[in-house]
Amino acid sequence: DFILIRNSAELSIKGTLSRNNDQDLFISLINMKGNDLAVNFMQLNPENSPDAIINMNAEIKGNFSAPLFNYNLALDSVKYKGQYFGSFTGQSNYADKNLSLNYQFTGSQLNPNGAALKIEGNIPIDLAFASVDKRLLNEKQMNIKITADNFDLTPFSDILPNVRKVKGVISADLNLTGTLADLKPEGYVSLSNASFIADANNLMYNEELKITIKDQNLNLENLVLKNSPETKDGGTITGHGSAVIQNYNMVSNDFSIN
Questions:
Q1: What HEC string does the chain produce?
Q2: Over the stretch 61-92, which tens digit does the pLDDT of each residue have?
């Protein structure tokens, strides 16, 4: 057994990890401060270091060539530059060369009615402790679902580069299926009621955006970027169009921006 204590945090490792016998290992991290990790282990500037209260536990079973993992993570009170964002929590399980994911980002400022962001599904991967020819199993089926439910951007107002006083709501429902070698994305991403002030000219802009993806076709359904009503002699930019995406590459496109 191994126990390491630092201030209020505790790292505990109990059990055995063996090449020839079954694994029986439990790892836990309790009450670790994210800022401590960022500054003292990653050598980040304290003023630009994210913070959170980190709790984690992992259980490892199975054998050296076919391990079994159960992993739970909780990042509570996530904070950056004095702004609180909420909590990022979830779990992963691994068995039979398949990694399942179930994570969510919650916070009353992001979405007071539930999870603002969810990521769930499975990825084919070989996490054997033994040496293997391929870790990522490119020909095996995968399925990842990403959902954003009225994700409020206001908490990110003053931390994004080149803009400030950012507002807006992101909604999304994306499904990534197929294989890693032939990914088939489908769904939509939309940005509504958005506004920001550009550092370059100190002017406020309003924005709307919607993108859909289906059968390797990416469609820009709507793009509107315009000066706020109080801007003298303001203008509006609109856009629409489509593109074909194959194997992570854009092979053709037809966009119109006016």
A1: CEEEEECCEEEEEEEECCCCCCCEEEEEEEEEEHHHHHHHHCCCCHHHCCEEEEEEEEEEEECCCCEEEEEEEEEEEEEECCEEEEEEEEEEEEECCEEEEEEEEEECCCEEEEEEEEEEEEEEECCCCCCCCCCECCCCEEEEEEEEEEEECHHHCCCCCCEEEEEEEEEEEEEEEEECCCEEEEEEEEEEEEEEEECCCCCEEEEEEEEEEECCEEEEEEEEEEECCCCCCCCEEEEEEEEEEECCEEEEEEEEEC
A2: 999 999 999 999 999 999 988 889 999 999 99
Mean pLDDT, residues 203-230: 95
Q: Output b/e per residue, 200-232; b: 16+ Cβ within 10 A.
A: eeeebbbbbbbbbbeebebebebbebebeeeee
Is the pLDDT at 247 greater than 80? The verdict is no
Which residue, 103, 124, 15, 12, is CA-closest to 61?
15
Measured distance CA(117)–CA(243) in Å, rounded: 26
pLDDT digits (tens, 9 = 90+) for 157-167: 878 889 999 99
